[in-house]
Structure formats: C-alpha cells, structure tokens
Design brief:
The protein is α/β, with parallel strands linked by helices and 346 residues long. The chain folds into three domains: 2-76 and 143-174 and 314-342, 2-Layer Sandwich (Nucleotidyltransferase, domain 5); 78-140, 2-Layer Sandwich (Nucleotidyltransferase, domain 5); 181-309, 2-Layer Sandwich (Nucleotidyltransferase, domain 5). Helices cover 29% and strands 33% of the residues. The chain has seven helices and 14 strands. The strands form three sheets. It has a six-stranded mixed β-sheet. A hairpin with a 2-residue loop joins strand 10 (191-198) and strand 11. The longest helix has 34 residues, at 241-274. The radius of gyration is 21 Å and the shape is globular. The N and C termini lie close together (8 Å).
C-alpha cells in the first residue's frame, strides 16, 4: 500500500510544501519540495483570506506538479493555546462533547472562538474517581475554517490538521530510540516551541514568542521571518546594506539565543517543580541557527543534561525539480511541512 501526502506550512511570507511518499514497510521518501513566496500585492482585498489562500494553493500545485491532492496542514504560534489539564476519565467521544463546559474557565478567549482537543498522557485515581492527565489544546476556529474552505476551493483534501509543535516532536522522535524524559526545542515562525516528552508520550508544551531585537538602521524592514532569511532589506545601499544586514542578523541571533537559554531554564525548572519524580535527561534543539556549538555550550553550562543539535530529518528523498534551493539536502526551514506530511499514517 502506498500514499502520497503534501505537508503545507503557511507563514506570513511563504507557503512551504513537501510531498512525501509513504509505502507499507518502508521509510517515507520526500519526492518534491517547494517554497512559494506570497506577494502581498497579489492578494485581492475584496475577497476573504480563504479565497486568496485557495488561489495560492492552485498556483503552487500548478508550479510544483504535485501528484496528490491529499494534504496535511499545521496550526501553531498565536493561533494555538496549550496548557496542562486534568479531565474526567470518559470515553473519547463523550469527553470531546463535554470539553467546552469543562474548560470555559481555563481559556483566555471565548470557547466559541476555538476548536478544542485533549491529548491524554496519563491516568490516575483521585478520591475514588479515575482522572486523565493531559494537554488541553485550543486552536483558533477562524484559522481552521480558513484552511478547510481554502482546500475545498482548491480541490484538495485535508487528511490531517496537526499542532505544529506536536508534529515536529513526533517527526524528530520517530528516528530516535525514545526512552526517558527529553525536551525538544525549535525556533520557528517567531516562536520558540518547547515540548517535553516521556518515552513516546508528549507530557508538556510551552510556546514562547521570541523577542525581536530593535534596529536603528532605516534600511531594514520591520518584518522578520524566523524560518527564512531573518531580515528583509527595504531599500538597499549597495555599499553598506550587506554589512548592515549581517550585523543585524548576528544581533538577532545573539538575542534569540539569550532568550532561548532563559526560557529553557525557566521551563525546565517549572517542569521539575511540578514533576519532581521526572528529570529531563536530554535537550534536542533545532531551527533558526540554534543548533550551533556556541548555543549548545551556553545551554549545557552548569547543567546535568545532554544537549544535542538536530539539523537533518533522517528521511531519504529525491532531488526536487521545482525548488530553487541548491542544497541537495532538505533545507531546515522546510522541517514543519516535512513533519506534517511525515506524520500521516497509511
């Protein structure tokens, strides 16, 4: 049995898509990948976001020549709220129906504005009643509806809508022997995603917006795409712009790494305080230049924990004929799209 799926990662500036071939008993194979720029001037302001997104999907399929209409999409960043939650031990369909009433007081937004889900990761007894430990996930309903409408209009079929931090973690963990407690960390799309796992179970999630360092240079745009080139030049001085961009990128990277160390230390401390019987044994970092020796050394300093940089997917793949990327290895900034496609089961 085989199935082709395209993972789609939509950012403010690009759509990144990866076509993966799944075959029974074999490792998934990446067949095509493409990064499709979203020119804001192409958007028809008289139409909805879903309509414009559908047009971009049609254009992307025409250019890439994907051989399937099956897609896996991801929700993350500001569109997602995640917290630990204790739920009654009910059958899955009954718990899903009861969730809106159970979690009203836990949400920072109206329950009508989100799509709810609960990921159980443990069971325990309390006062004679069985309870479930787990993660409450609330995704922005408007974003989910836009994806559904856009894919229908583009004649695509969604086979999976996943939480981006979950998809990335499962993807990285899939290629490793999972024992003990580990923290997976990735900087992408202006967020630091921190996911703690115990064995193959996701135990804890934290999504942290990372701070953008201010720059006084007038030629730098105020927009940053953490998974792409970092800074975009608005108007370039041919003599100074390259130097300015390099300096600003170095400043941005240093600030991100400093914040990532702080956020990780706080997260590890919080996790150990709330789960005193568990100890994080390894931290795996990837994305936006976090997987470098300086950052790993800073993160490891004074800690009894192993820190590992994770840069490659471990998937075999064919060279794309449509991507402009020259590197024959799959670029790291396509990791979200790859993880979404890789997570679909036959």
């Amino acid at each position: 049995m085989k199935k082709r799926v395209v993972g789609i990662d939509v950012t403010s500036r690009t759509i990144r898509a990866v076509q993966v071939l799944h075959k029974t008993g074999q490792r998934p194979v990446v067949e095509k990948f493409i990064e499709f720029p979203l020119d804001t001037f192409d958007a028809d302001l008289t139409k909805s976001r879903a309509s414009n997104l559908a047009k971009h999907f049609r254009d992307l399929w025409a250019e890439a020549g994907f051989k399937t209409k099956l897609v896996a999409v991801g929700i993350g960043g500001a569109d997602v709220f995640v917290k630990t939650f204790v739920a009654p031990d009910l059958p899955k369909h009954k718990l899903k129906k009861a969730l809106p009433e159970l979690v009203k007081a836990e949400l920072p937004m109206a329950v009508e504005e989100v799509v709810l889900d609960f990921y159980a990761n443990g069971r325990f007894e309390s006062e004679g009643e069985s309870k479930l430990n787990g993660l409450l996930v609330a995704a922005n309903r408007e974003t989910v509806d836009d994806f559904m409408e856009a894919t229908r209009a583009a004649k695509l079929k969604i086979v999976s809508i996943d939480l981006i931090p979950f998809a990335l973690t499962r993807h990285l963990a899939k290629r490793r022997i999972q024992t003990g407690v580990k923290a997976f960390v990735r900087a992408s799309n202006s967020y630091i995603n921190i996911v703690v796992t115990e064995g193959n179970t996701i135990a804890f999630v934290r999504l942290v917006p990372w701070e953008r360092p201010g720059t006084s240079q007038s030629q730098l745009a105020d927009t940053i795409d953490a998974d792409s080139k970092g800074l975009f030049v608005d108007s370039a001085n041919p003599i100074t712009s390259d130097i300015t961009v390099i300096q600003a990128q170095e400043q941005q990277q240093t600030a991100l790494q400093r914040q990532a160390v702080r956020e990780l230390e706080e997260t590890v401390a919080f996790f150990h305080q709330n789960y005193p019987d568990k100890h994080i044994e390894e931290i795996l970092v990837s994305g936006y230049r976090l997987d470098n020796k300086a950052f790993i050394d800073a993160l490891s300093k004074g800690k009894n924990v192993w820190v590992t940089g994770v840069t490659r997917s471990g998937l075999g793949h064919k060279r794309s004929t449509v991507s402009t990327v020259e590197d024959p290895d799959l670029p790291d900034h396509l990791a979200v799209a790859l993880a979404l496609a890789d997570g679909v089961e036959l």
